[in-house]
């Protein structure tokens, strides 16, 4: 998959007469970045165009057939508000993603307690869960201090828990514990785990879930207000914290989304 740009130059001077210089430049990365950008722009345009086309259609209906029908007007206005909210969510998620990516090189400096941040994130979520008939159980330690960006950790908890409520089977478990060693992080880590008892995800999809706009069931995701960016945001926030996102799922049993935060050396316990 390597792509080269080849330049051919005649060698100057008497010594080089009749000879050429072949210059190979590996441009695989630039070309991948370019095609990634093109794909991303195409995806964003499509995602924005869908609600926009619907909005234009509703405006036409309001101006035409529904002009003198107050009940139909109410109905179309509520559909329009749903589409506008969808566009709003998409733009907010795009902004979050670009903000996280822009700051990815700078590791957060402030010391934050993950437990308090989880509790802050869960406050508004408990209501969403109970509206959806789901229960969130937690298993948290007294304290888990790491260098973190508070808003971003709250966003991780929000995105993973909302997904577990949306796609799960009604029981969500959120736990935080320290593990002695993580192979990829090469050290101890705080493990934030959101588990659900949903139908699970086909292993074919699992490696691609954190790609932008990747969904297993686009219709279902859109129907539930999804933008397809939630897990991409989680993955990039984890990377910014020098951590990682791990996804495990078993068909018929449920899914488990884990974010690992490296523990600073002087913070690890020996248990
Ligand atoms: P979306 O806005 O579509 O929810 P995400 O990036 O958060 O976007 O998730 C990507 C896709 O991963 C979802 O569309 C859904 O198909 C799948 N998914 C995410 N979380 C779960 C879960 N807990 N159980 C089953 N599928 C999930």
TrEMBL record:
Superkingdom as given in the UniProt entry: Bacteria
EC numbers for this chain: 2.7.13.3
Record field: catalytic activity: ATP + protein L-histidine = ADP + protein N-phospho-L-histidine
Transmembrane region(s): none
Keywords for this protein: Kinase, Phosphoprotein, Transferase, Two-component regulatory system
Membrane as UniProt keyword: no
Histidine kinase domain boundaries: 43-265
GO molecular function: kinase activity
Protein name: histidine kinase
Gene source species: Thalassobacter stenotrophicus DSM 16310
């Amino acid at each position: 998959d390597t792509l080269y740009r080849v330049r051919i130059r005649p060698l100057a001077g008497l010594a080089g007469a009749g000879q050429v210089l072949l210059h190979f430049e590996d441009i695989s990365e630039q070309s991948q970045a370019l095609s990634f950008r093109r794909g991303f722009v195409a995806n964003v345009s499509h995602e924005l165009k869908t609600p926009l086309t619907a909005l234009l259609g509703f405006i036409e209906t309001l101006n035409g057939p529904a002009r003198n029908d107050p009940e139909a007007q109410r109905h179309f206005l509520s559909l329009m508000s749903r589409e506008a909210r969808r566009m709003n969510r998409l733009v907010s998620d795009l902004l979050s993603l670009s903000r996280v990516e822009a700051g990815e090189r700078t590791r957060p400096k402030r010391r934050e307690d993950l437990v308090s941040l989880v509790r802050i994130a869960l406050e508004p979520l408990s209501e969403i869960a109970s509206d959806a008939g789901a229960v969130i159980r937690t298993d948290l330690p007294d304290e888990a201090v790491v260098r973190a960006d508070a808003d971003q950790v709250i966003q991780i908890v929000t995105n993973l828990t909302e997904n577990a409520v949306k796609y799960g089977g009604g029981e969500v478990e959120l736990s935080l514990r320290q593990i002695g060693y993580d192979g990829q992080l090469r050290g101890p880590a705080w493990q934030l785990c959101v588990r659900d008892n949903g139908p699970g995800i086909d292993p074919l999809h699992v490696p691609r879930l954190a790609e932008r706009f990747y969904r297993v069931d686009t219709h279902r995701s859109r129907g539930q207000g999804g933008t397809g960016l939630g897990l991409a945001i989680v993955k990039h926030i984890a990377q910014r914290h020098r951590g990682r996102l791990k996804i495990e799922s078993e068909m018929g049993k449920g899914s488990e989304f884990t974010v690992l935060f490296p523990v600073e050396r002087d913070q690890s316990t020996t248990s």
